[in-house]
Structures are given as structure tokens and as C-alpha cells.
């Protein structure tokens, strides 16, 4: 086989240059390069650190658990599964080891930065639940405000008068990022308590009445939310590392 050969299809040798061409034509070359750069950065980082040690017992137990979960306890069946997936035991073992090291690397990089990053992002992570009645003139907005303050049904008035799509849901807009709110609305929301009527406020040529339904503050005590934020921060770190690489595509 020629040194440049990448693999064969029906005994025809496909070299790396052809692979690159196929990826270019299919529009997948950039993603391919991105994946390679990502793995390169991670491997380099893992090689240069001496604070990431994973016990052999932990890896072996993870492999046993995986085989049990996927009904691959029979050795011959497991070998067949590896072959069908283009792998072997050494490669599979290396993959499991890498996944453990990656999680430890992520923790080492992210944990010291997480509290500060959380504070920076909190305005966008906090959410509020609002209901809205949007109309096209101030007189009507003021009249509806008066009716609601006097005991009128916000939901019914939203159905009857609101021009916004959420009128079919009694005006309920659902959870919204606090940071995405226009400044004038965010200031009013921050000063309100759940159940309070806000407005009318003029936004983009329309007048709107809002009712603050609920406040959903972000918290690092939420495990799922914390994991999401950790992943976001790690990807940010990884992206900065990749941007600092000098990359030249050389295929002949």
C-alpha cells in the first residue's frame, strides 16, 4: 500500500488527498479540521500535566460496567462488537481512559473559574416568567391597566385585546432570560414582585402591560445547570486554545 493511502474501497486505494477533496465537496472539511484540532489540544494538554492520574481499577470497572450494561459479557461477543465498531480492546481501553482524564481535566480547568464566570453570566442565566397584553395605543393600554387594577381578568383581557401571539395562552410568555429583556423592562421587573402589574411600557412602537408571574434565579446548587455551565466554560477555554494554533493544510 502506498504511504499516502488512507484506506481502500473495493480494493481501490483512497489517499488522504482524495479524502480531503470529498470532505470539501460535502462541506464537512471545516468540521473535520475542527475535530482534529480539538483532539490535538486535549491530547497536548493531558500530556503536559502531571496532576491527572486515573487508577487502573477505576478504568477496568468502567469497562466491566459498560459490558454488563450493553450485554457484552461473552468474550467472543465483545471481540466481535469491537471489530464491528472498527476498534480493538487496546483502543477501547484508551478511549475509556481518555474520557476519565478529560472529565478530570475539565474539573481542574473549570472549577477555579466557575464562581466568577457564574456571576458574570448570572443576568442572562436568571429567568423570569411574564404575561403580556400588547396593544397599539396608549389610551387602550391605560384603560386595560385600570380594569385589571379594579379586578378585571388579565387572562381574559389578553385574549380579547392583545396583538401578541401569546394571547392564545392568556398572555403567558413563558420563561425569559432576564438579560435579554430591554433595559426599561428589566428595571421594572427587578423592582417588582410576582403578581405585580407592570406598565404600560412602550417597546418597538407598541404599548404593553406585563404581569410578573415568577422569578427563576439561577443557582450552582442545581447539578444539571452547574454541569451545563461547566461545559460552556470548558468549551470557551478550548476555543481560545484552538484560536492560538497556527494551522497549515498540506496535502499532496
From TrEMBL:
<feature type="domain" description="PpiC">
    <location>
        <begin position="125"/>
        <end position="214"/>
    </location>
</feature>
<dbReference type="InterPro" id="IPR050245">
    <property type="entry name" value="PrsA_foldase"/>
</dbReference>
<dbReference type="InterPro" id="IPR046357">
    <property type="entry name" value="PPIase_dom_sf"/>
</dbReference>
<dbReference type="InterPro" id="IPR000297">
    <property type="entry name" value="PPIase_PpiC"/>
</dbReference>
<keyword id="KW-0697">Rotamase</keyword>
<dbReference type="GO" id="GO:0003755">
    <property type="term" value="F:peptidyl-prolyl cis-trans isomerase activity"/>
</dbReference>
<keyword id="KW-0413">Isomerase</keyword>
<keyword id="KW-0732">Signal</keyword>
<dbReference type="InterPro" id="IPR027304">
    <property type="entry name" value="Trigger_fact/SurA_dom_sf"/>
</dbReference>
<protein>
    <recommendedName>
        <fullName>peptidylprolyl isomerase</fullName>
        <ecNumber>5.2.1.8</ecNumber>
    </recommendedName>
</protein>
<dbReference type="Pfam" id="PF00639">
    <property type="entry name" value="Rotamase"/>
</dbReference>
Amino acid at each position: 500500500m502506498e504511504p499516502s493511502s488512507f484506506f481502500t474501497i473495493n480494493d481501490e486505494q483512497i489517499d488522504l488527498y482524495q479524502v480531503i477533496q470529498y470532505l470539501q465537496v460535502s462541506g464537512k472539511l471545516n468540521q473535520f479540521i475542527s475535530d482534529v484540532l480539538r483532539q490535538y489540544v486535549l491530547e497536548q494538554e493531558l500530556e503536559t500535566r502531571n496532576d491527572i492520574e486515573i487508577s487502573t481499577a477505576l478504568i477496568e470497572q468502567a469497562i466491566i460496567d459498560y459490558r454488563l450494561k450493553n450485554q457484552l459479557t461473552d468474550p467472543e461477543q465483545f471481540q466481535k462488537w469491537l471489530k464491528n465498531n472498527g476498534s480493538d480492546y487496546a483502543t477501547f481501553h484508551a478511549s475509556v481512559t481518555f474520557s476519565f482524564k478529560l472529565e478530570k481535566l475539565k474539573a481542574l480547568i473549570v472549577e477555579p473559574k466557575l464562581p466568577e464566570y457564574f456571576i458574570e453570566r448570572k443576568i442572562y442565566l436568571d429567568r423570569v416568567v411574564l404575561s403580556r397584553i400588547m396593544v397599539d395605543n396608549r389610551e387602550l393600554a391605560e384603560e386595560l391597566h385600570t380594569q385589571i387594577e379594579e379586578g378585571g381578568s388579565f387572562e381574559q383581557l389578553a385574549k380579547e385585546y392583545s396583538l401578541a401571539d401569546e394571547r392564545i395562552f392568556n398572555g403567558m410568555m413563558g420563561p425569559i432570560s432576564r438579560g435579554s429583556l430591554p433595559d426599561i423592562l428589566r428595571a421594572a421587573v427587578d423592582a417588582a414582585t410576582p403578581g405585580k402589574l407592570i406598565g404600560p411600557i412602550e417597546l418597538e412602537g407598541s404599548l404593553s402591560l406585563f404581569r410578573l408571574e415568577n422569578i427563576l434565579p439561577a443557582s450552582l446548587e442545581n447539578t444539571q445547570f452547574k454541569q451545563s455551565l461547566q461545559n460552556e466554560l470548558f468549551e470557551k477555554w478550548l476555543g481560545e486554545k484552538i484560536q492560538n494554533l497556527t494551522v497549515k493544510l498540506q496535502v499532496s
